[in-house]
Amino acid sequence: MVDDENLKAENEPLARLECLGNAKQMVPRMFEMIGHSKFFTDFTRENVETLTSYMKAYRAEPGDLVIREGDVDDFMLFIVEGRVNIVKTDSHGERRPMTIVGPGGTLGEMSMIDGEPRFASCIALEATVFSVFSRDSMVKIILEQPSLGAKILIKLVTLLSQRLRSTSSDLLQHLERSEAV
Amino acid sequence: MVDDENLKAENEPLARLECLGNAKQMVPRMFEMIGHSKFFTDFTRENVETLTSYMKAYRAEPGDLVIREGDVDDFMLFIVEGRVNIVKTDSHGERRPMTIVGPGGTLGEMSMIDGEPRFASCIALEATVFSVFSRDSMVKIILEQPSLGAKILIKLVTLLSQRLRSTSSDLLQHLERSEAV
């Protein structure tokens, strides 16, 4: 079992990146970025401090893979510095750039929540610093700090709801257009 | 202010339907439906009882409007009996049927969560009994029953995540197809 775990850790993109330790050292920077982060609006400084104490910080160099499409893992990222390209493989095996996420943005919430394989890959576009929030930490916060846990869950649910609205609208527009062809 | 409230209530589709009172009377039926409801897997009987005590039950007749696209309100529905048609107006003003939701299914989570206008209309296909869960009740449960609150939020977040995956996949497929044309 231990061997499997090690093997898995080695194959994980995160394990190949530079770990900067507990994210708590980044609280001032996390706090700065709150202004332009949807996620952190209405989080107090204390909330941010508590949340970051449950996270680890990492650094990726340009071109580094941060999340690999199809992998089964269960963490999300908060981008503190730099930019990350989201890329999805299409049915012809070609990588399609989907969007770019910068400081204050979040990545990987879906797999953190539902444990399903990663929907897309995330590749650092430049030197990027991010903090990692795992499902285990989420569960711990819910148990140890229920009101902060609820706040985070409400944020996640709002974020996903807004994305679902916008993706559904895009899909409808494409359906209409393809019918018009 | 009171007049505005009354006017709003009269214009709301829900206000025109038959209210069956507190949903708690439907606990046995709610419990039966758990078997085929994604939402209620891993809810205990006690959880279901508590949750339903925060909900009201309604009945709609075939053709009744249950939710109107564009309305601003903040509740979700649990279908106990019957089936509901989800219909979205396209850019030509035509109503497009999107999907049908039956017993055990949920509706309207997005507006319950983010307070944005309703994305689509819901129309009863047959005699339908459903329970209504408002954002106010959600907030109350989080404050009064934090662990059940977290359980509900985790369910919502998982549900939205799965829908976002499937909608994103559909969108990608359509993008690929329209490029191939």
| Greatest interface (CB-CB under 8 A), with counts per chain | A-B, 39 and 39 residues
**Helicity level of chain A:** 40-55%
The whole-angstrom Rg of chain A is 17 Å
Oligomer: homodimer
Strand order of the largest sheet of chain A: 1-2-9-4-7
Q: What layout of secondary structure does this protein have?
A:
The structure is a homodimer of 181-residue chains.
Chain A: H1 2-11, E1 18-22, H2 27-33, H3 45-53, E2 56-60, E3 65-67, E4 75-81, E5 84-89, E6 95-101, E7 106-107, H4 109-114, E8 121-124, E9 128-134, H5 135-144, H6 146-180
Helix pairs in contact in A: 5-6
Provide a quick synopsis of the model.
Two copies of one chain form a homodimer. By secondary structure, the first copy, chain A, is α+β, with helices and mostly antiparallel strands.
Task: Describe the protein in words.
Two copies of one chain form a homodimer. Chain A is an alpha+beta fold and 181 residues long. Chain A has one domain (2-136): Jelly Rolls. Chain A is built from six helices and nine strands. Chain A has helices spanning 2-11, 27-33, 45-53, 109-114, 135-144, 146-180; strands spanning 18-22, 56-60, 65-67, 75-81, 84-89, 95-101, 106-107, 121-124, 128-134. A five-stranded antiparallel β-sheet of chain A has the order 1-2-9-4-7. In chain A, helix 5 (135-144) packs across helix 6. The longest helix of chain A is centred in the last third of the chain and has 35 residues, at 146-180. The first copy, chain A, starts with a helix and ends with a helix. The interface between A and B is large, with 39 and 39 residues.
